[in-house]
Amino acid sequence: MATGRPDQMGRAPPVAELLVRVDGRSNTSLHAQIFDGVRAAILRGTLAGGARLPSSRELAAQLGVARTTVLQALEGLVAEGYVVARPRSGLRVAPQVPVELVRPSGRSPPASRPLRLSALARALRDAPTGTPRAGSAPRPFRPGIPALDLFPVPLWSRVVSRVHARASTASLGDGDPNGQPALRRAIAAHVSAARGVRCTEEQILVTAGTQAAFEEALRLLLEPGDEVWVEDPGYLGAHRAVRVTGGVPVGIPVDGEGLDVAEGIARAPRARAVILAPSHQYPLGATLSLARRMALLRWAATTGSAVIEDDYDSEFRHRGRPLMALQGLDEAGRVFYVGTFSKTLFPGLRMGFLVVPPALVDPVRATRAALAAPAPPLEQAAVAEFIAEGHFARHLRRMRVAYRERGEALLAALRAECAGMLEPHPCDTGMQLSASLPPDLPDRAVRDAALARGIEVGALADYALGRRPVQGLLFGFGCARPPALRAAVTELARAIEGLPR
Asked: Which of 426, 409, 213, 186 is nearest to 309 (CA)?
């Protein structure tokens, strides 16, 4: 049996005894294979502490590899403490390899207690995640995905190339933690003109998307256990942001006028904040009525609570001018306005922005002072230039036309193919619409049957906090052209017809 000990003549054990094997066809480099083989022999106990190893020349000859390859492997073993080099004694296995690391071949690793997840981690693990995906490529009716097929990639590439070509030393560093000044100026000009947001560039903070903006605002506001209103059903990212920042989400029902403010006051009158999408509620698509907007702002001003306005896709009003943002009505400085380029440009950009109330500009900047830029400065510069040169406004206009066409095609197909199975609700903003189902058709059963056919329709129950969730379906139509939408509706109708009722 191989023991890994030198023989009576003091000779090192042969390579076969070390159980080192090299394979020139492997994707793993030869020096890494040698390192792994010797290390494994030590940890198995095949090579005992103090055992002498072959010289680099001997090992190279026996393995049929270059000596430099062997030296690279041995240097790694010495650096990590498995092997020691002694003058006139060559290389030997370290005499003090911790005994708990050595596991003779065939033995199971010692029992150990698993790491314990925190209560927050367990809650996030068990929380719903929205519509299941059938693959990585966008397909009907995946919610929240814009018309990537219509994004002007050549134009964007030219802007990016131009920005990179004139990059300065400053733009290659960490960047401004609040966001590049040129981008903040461009955002302030755009949201003021297009969304009726009242702000200066100092109030703009660039973020790594909507979720990051929610969490940043909530960290400024919440103490552990504070209640936060969230729409029910609503955007799951809002629910997650509240939990991550130590708050308690309180589901407030949504109807045809948007979030029920009176019900929110009844359920949690001293809530520290509310997160809502007043211009285009997700996933039902309602618009918060003017009466409820004013009631919400009065409640926030009276209680000292904050309103976090999620304005994720209201730029895409299919006809007429987009509705004015809730922030534009705020006289008390209570509204945080959140925007994202994931919907207006493309999701891979992972960039959004937060408009903070004037009184909080200094505290927010102080909390960000030691942080790195929220997005690469060169990418921020490209977005700034894309906006300043008018490309962004033109892209938005083109998308409004495309989403109107796709929404109308989907609505017509649902009415023609699924009459009697579901009732679609017309959509005048954004990239998705919802539909009601009869009581004998559970939305999750429909969702699963559709998914089996490669269709990613959402179940409204997946977006709910309450015990009696709204039953219905969510259709994203931004990522597919009308022919693909119509074909998917036909498949959906077949899936529903196959369900027991």
From this structure: 213
CATH number of 15-101: 1.10.10.10
Task: Please name the residue that has the structure tokens 């090192």.
Answer: 12
* Residue recorded with tokens 């999701």: 347
Exposed, middle or buried, 231 (CB in 10 Å: 0-12/13-18/19+)? buried
Going from the first residue of the chain to its last (501 residues), give the mean pLDDT of each consecutive group of 10, the final group possibly shorter.
Answer: 46 61 86 88 81 86 89 89 81 74 58 76 74 74 92 96 87 83 96 94 95 94 96 94 95 95 97 96 94 97 97 90 91 96 93 96 87 85 96 95 96 94 93 93 94 93 81 94 96 92 74
Residue 353: φ, ψ to 5°: -155, 155
> What is the number of helices (H) and of strands (E) in the chain?
17, 14
Q: Indicate the pTM of the whole model.
A: 0.81
The ranges assigned to domains in the chain are 15-101, 151-389, 394-497
Tokens, residue 5: 């000990």
CB-CB contact of 432 with 468 (8 Å): no
Sole residue written with tokens 């969510």: 474
Residue 119's nearest CA partner among 251, 249, 244 is 244
Cα gap 158→492, rounded to integer Å: 41
Whether 15-101 and 151-389 share one fold: the answer is no
The CATH code that applies to domain 394-497 is 3.90.1150.10
Q: Which residues pair with 352 in a beta bridge?
A: 207, 340
CATH class of the 151-389 domain in this structure: alpha beta
Residue pair 54/62 in contact by the 8 Å Cβ criterion = yes
